[in-house]
UniProtKB/TrEMBL annotation, chain A:
Organism for this UniProt entry: Alicyclobacillus tolerans
Subcellular location: Cell inner membrane; Cell membrane
One biological process term in Gene Ontology: transmembrane transport
A GO CC annotation given for this chain: plasma membrane
Official protein name in the record: Iron(III) transport system permease protein
Transmembrane regions listed in the UniProt entry: 20-43, 72-96, 108-129, 158-182, 203-221, 257-277, 309-332, 367-386, 398-420, 432-454, 537-557
Main location per the UniProt record: membrane
The ABC transmembrane type-1 domain, residue ranges: 73-278, 363-558
Taxonomic placement: Bacteria, Bacillati, Bacillota, Bacilli, Bacillales
Domain of life: Bacteria
Automatic annotation (TrEMBL), chain B:
Reaction catalyzed: a quaternary ammonium(out) + ATP + H2O = a quaternary ammonium(in) + ADP + phosphate + H(+)
ABC transporter domain residues: 3-237
A molecular-function term among this protein's GO annotations: ATP hydrolysis activity
Domain of life: Bacteria
Signal peptide: none
Pfam families reported in the protein's UniProt record: ABC_tran
Keywords: ATP-binding, Nucleotide-binding, Transport
Protein name: Carnitine transport ATP-binding protein OpuCA
Length: 575, 384
């Protein structure tokens, strides 16, 4: 009894100490790299030898010396806003088709939107480039004269492509909102004589406004900070974008650290603002529109086939058309002038599996990175989420806040931060200059995936009653035992899905892969990008498709494992 | 007749929720659709509103067909007002905009809209809230605005779907009076869905009692309460002691029944003797008196009663009691020649537990209902 009481007495103290490993992880992975990057804005010589802490406005002043930077910021703002508006419109159509289209249609549309969500931006963008470029697949298929698809390589074309890509962000916000609007709000309008259009304008859309604005803010943030799209399209379209300028400042000679840091700061501020707006709109959703009635079978609804067809067409454009174009591209012989039975080949796929070939090496390398990252993310995510949920302390609250903020930091900024952080002169005496090593790239992958994993795990653990852990503690169980025997069994399907989601995400992670890969050992995404930059579209496309197939197989494996776990536990899990 | 349901049936897949409903609702009636959850009352209301189609039968309003299999007049053109269970006031609109909505849809001139909104807001005594937003209103105020919105376009029928269910008990009692007042001022035919028999009894001019998708009984509130035609109706219309009895004999003016050996001569016409019957005794029609074992009971209970023929009495013991403010609810175990029976009795005086009492009632308070013991236990189970 005495022992137990002593344990109880000291628990708050140990709980604070228990948070320290978590804090250290976040410091090394996120806080330090971001601080190192942003420090550069005000202290441009902090990374010089010798170190100088003299503050200066020079980096911000110099930023606009290169007219491309200003142009990139404006372009990113315009494209972010334009694609958010168009995506909102398109996502609204798809979301209504989803809610009004019956259960089966809903499942199909949900799956299609998830596919769009998971599809890597740059793979989609490359598909569009293959399709629309001069002499591209569309020109070949339809025998179009030269110049007819050039309109696509403009800001307007890019807005369309980006809008299609960001549909899921708005869709996910919108569908539950539409579902939650009590049917009687619309029925009240019907009984008062309002037709469908009038009801949509005066009742439904105003009620959906908070969700629409939240989704649009998120889509804007995604568009503004999207590196994959910029990386694939900027070289083709000559439309400078802020994320590509950050990459170019660090990757092209002469390297311009202050410019990269200043652009990153602007990117973070604008994206932070967009995320703030998103939270603000979600918080102001004070309309208590959730019906107390059962929504099933309270009204005859005509399932509009036209609506569903439009939704499928939009999703076809968003994913299946660009991916179809990538598939076709990957099967075409080089330098095909017109399509016929002799234009097709599997040589690009065969070359990928050539022993010692760059494609296979890159693939295997990335599989190792993905597996390691998924494993570490799963374990650390579980522990950190546990700390935050069941071991409340000031440090944990701080880590939680930091983690939410990190989700708003685009991958390219975090990756840029790693360059400054782990190439710093003060690390030389410590023998800790890890920039350019696989460890640095692995850490960057972990930094990108860990916040999402922790959020997912917290979401799952929130459904586990705190009393379950308290009951175990009161019986003298240690933290480790509580995680292993109480929490883990209840959240295991989320833990498994975290593993597979991280693994598939790492397979196509571009920003860190591009900026941090060890010299001579490019990972898979960077190799694909290099192929496209070298105009080896067919080879690059074959690699993208192979990657997608692997991701799909991993996803299916993940779902299978999850279903097995759920079945074996006879639904004891909370997910 | 304003509203006519002729053999209306409705199913959701294999589940038949309304079976062969035939009803005639006169113009100007305040009709309560009463029944337990899942009995089909809201579906019937939805059919009247135009949100649901029907698989059989016909719905006519003022002689015009509103629904038949494969045909439905859409809600937009029916001129029906509806007050929803949770009001369904649009939260992004002010009180004025909510009430004016139906008038704007009709493209009435601006001044006419303003005048009509003022008129209905004054009817529900909410003029000073015309600029308020919905979230600034209390539950009762929301209720009034919902009524005002429904009444603004002068509907020929007003539908109310359990409109008091989201209010607290005190407000509910107040709103009953107000709804009656508003609906009679608006001179509309009102169809009021409720599962609360007190609401139905106190507000309606007509009651339709539904059970498992069928009409169990229709009639006036008094008729349903005092002369329920089934055990279900007896139970549903209020607290009841429903007791299985056997008819010994009957003629054109009286019926002799046997209740566990206790014989009672009741008023009534000749009935089929072989059928099972139930005796309905409402708890507040039963009375208690302290039993001292010596006194001639009938003179002590009620001096105005001159003949023992008009009353029935039993001795019993108070087993349980619960204080309800104005009255006590007792469970009394009474002795019958061939057994015991527990009766519920409402009484204003306090009697201690285990005390011996007389339980008595007047003959006119005893009602005979067709139905056997199995039916009785089935309904009791269903009603919880």
């Amino acid at each position: 009894m005495t022992t137990l009481r002593n344990k109880q007495k000291w628990r708050p103290f140990f709980s604070g100490l228990g948070s320290l490993p978590g804090l250290l992880i976040f410091f090394l992975l996120i806080l330090y790299p971001l601080a190192a990057l942003l420090l550069q804005v005000g202290f441009p010589n902090v990374f010089n030898t010798p170190i100088s802490w003299k503050p200066s406005w020079q980096p911000l002043q110099q930023l606009f010396a290169n007219p491309l930077n200003g142009q990139a910021i404006v372009n990113s703002l315009i494209l972010g806003a334009g694609s958010a508006i168009l995506a909102t419109f398109l996502a609204t159509l798809v979301a209504f088709a989803r809610v009004r289209g019956g259960k089966k249609m809903g499942k199909i549309l949900d799956t299609a939107v998830w596919i769009v969500f998971f599809a890597p931006s740059y793979v989609i963008a490359q598909g569009w480039v293959s399709l629309m470029q001069e002499g591209g697949i569309l020109s070949e298929l339809l025998n179009l004269p030269n110049g007819l698809t050039q309109w696509f390589f403009s800001k307007e074309g890019l807005v369309v492509v980006m809008a299609l890509r960001y549909i899921p962000f708005i869709y996910f916000a919108l569908v539950p909102s539409i579902q939650n609007i009590g049917l009687e709000y619309e029925q009240a309008g019907r009984l008062l004589g309002a037709n469908a259009g009038y009801r949509l304008r005066r009742i439904t859309l105003p009620l959906l406004l908070p969700a629409l604005l939240a989704g649009a803010s998120l889509a804007f943030a995604e568009g503004f900070g999207d590196f994959g799209m910029a990386a694939a399209i900027t070289p083709q379209m000559h439309i400078p974008l802020i994320t590509y300028q950050i990459y170019a400042s660090l990757d092209q000679t002469p390297v311009n650290y202050p410019s990269a840091a200043s652009l990153s700061l602007i990117l973070i501020v604008i994206m932070g603002l967009a995320f703030y707006l998103q939270f603000h709109f979600l918080k102001t959703r004070s309309f208590a529109t959730i019906s107390t009635h059962s929504k099933e079978q309270t009204e005859i609804r005509n399932h509009h086939r036209g609506f569903s067809l439009v939704a499928f067409f939009i999703l076809f454009l968003a994913f299946f058309l660009p991916i179809g174009s990538t598939i076709i591209q990957s099967l075409l012989k080089n330098y095909v002038t017109h399509l016929d039975a002799h234009s097709w080949t599997l040589v690009h796929y065969k070359s990928l599996f050539k022993p010692g070939g760059s494609g296979l090496q890159a693939l295997l390398r990335t599989l190792v990175y993905a597996l390691t990252n998924a494993f570490l993310t799963m374990i650390l995510g579980l522990f950190l989420a546990y700390q935050m949920m069941f071991r409340r302390s000031k440090i944990n609250q701080f880590i939680n806040l930091l983690m939410i903020a990190t989700i708003a930091v685009p991958g390219i900024v975090l990756a840029a931060g790693f360059i400054f952080a782990y190439n710093a002169t003060w690390l030389i005496p410590l023998h800790f200059v890890i920039y350019g090593t696989p460890i640095c790239l692995g850490m960057a992958y972990l930094a990108g995936s860990l916040p999402y994993a922790v959020r997912l795990q917290i979401g799952s653990m929130q459904q586990v009653s705190g009393n379950l852990a308290t009951a175990a503690f009161s019986l003298g169980a240690s933290n480790l035992r509580v995680i292993a025997q109480i929490v883990m069994p209840l959240v295991r399907t989320t833990t498994v899905s975290t593993f597979f989601m991280t693994m598939t995400g790492t397979m196509f992670e571009l920003p860190a892969s591009s900026l941090l890969y060890p010299p001579g050992s490019p990972p898979f995404p960077e190799t694909i990008q290099q192929k496209f930059n070298a105009f080896e579209f067919a080879r690059g496309s074959a690699m993208s498709i192979l990657g997608l197939i692997i991701v799909l197989l991993l996803y299916m494996l993940g779902r299978w494992v999850e279903s097995m776990l759920l079945r074996s536990s006879n639904s004891v899990g909370v997910e | 007749m304003l509203i006519e349901f002729r053999g209306v049936s409705k199913s959701y897949g294999d589940k038949e929720v309304l079976q062969n409903i035939t009803l005639n609702i006169p113009s100007g009636a305040f009709l309560a659709l009463l029944g337990p959850s899942g009995c089909g009352k809201t579906t019937l209301l939805s059919i009247l509103a135009g949100f649901q189609d029907i698989q059989a039968g016909e719905l006519r309003v003022a002689g015009e067909v509103w629904a038949r299999p494969g045909y439905i007049v859409p809600p937009e053109v029916r001129n029906v007002g509806m007050v929803f269970q949770d009001f369904a006031l649009w939260p992004h609109m002010s009180v004025f905009e909510n009430v004016a909505f139906g008038l704007k849809v009709k493209r009435l001139p601006r001044q006419q809209i303003v005048d009509r909104v003022e008129e209905v807001l004054s009817l529900v005594r909410m003029q000073e809230y015309r600029h308020a937003m919905v979230h600034q209103l209390s539950g009762g105020q929301k209720q009034r605005i919902a009524i005002a919105r429904a009444l603004a376009p002068n509907p020929q029928i007003l539908l109310m779907d359990e409109p008091l269910s989201s209010l607290d008990t005190k407000l509910r009692e107040q709103m009953r009076w107000e709804i009656l007042e508003f609906s009679s001022a608006a001179k509309t035919t009102t169809i009021y869905v409720t599962h609360d028999q007190i609401e139905a009894l106190s507000m309606a001019s007509h009651i339709v009692l539904l059970n498992a998708g069928k009409v169990e009984q229709t009639g006036s509130p008094q008729g349903l309460y005092t002369q329920p035609s089934t055990a279900f109706a007896a139970h549903f219309m209020g607290a009841a002691n429903v007791l299985p009895v056997q008819v010994v004999r009957s003629d054109h003016s009286s019926i002799m029944v046997d209740w566990k050996g206790y014989q009672m001569l009741l008023d009534g016409k000749k009935v089929v003797q072989r059928m099972p019957y139930l005796l309905l005794l409402r708890p507040h029609h039963l009375h208690l008196h302290t039993y001292d074992g010596t006194v001639e009971w009938k003179d002590r209970f009620h001096p105005s009663l001159s003949s023992g023929d008009h009353i029935f009495s039993w001795t019993g013991v108070i087993m349980q009691r619960a204080y309800h403010g104005a009255q006590w609810l007792y469970k009394v175990e009474i002795l019958l020649p061939h057994g015991k029976e527990i009766l519920e009795v409402w009484q204003s005086e306090a009697y201690p537990i285990k005390s011996k009492v007389w339980v008595w009632t007047e003959k006119k308070s005893c009602t005979l209902v067709a139905g056997g013991e199995s039916e009785q236990s089935r309904y009791q189970k269903k009603l919880g």
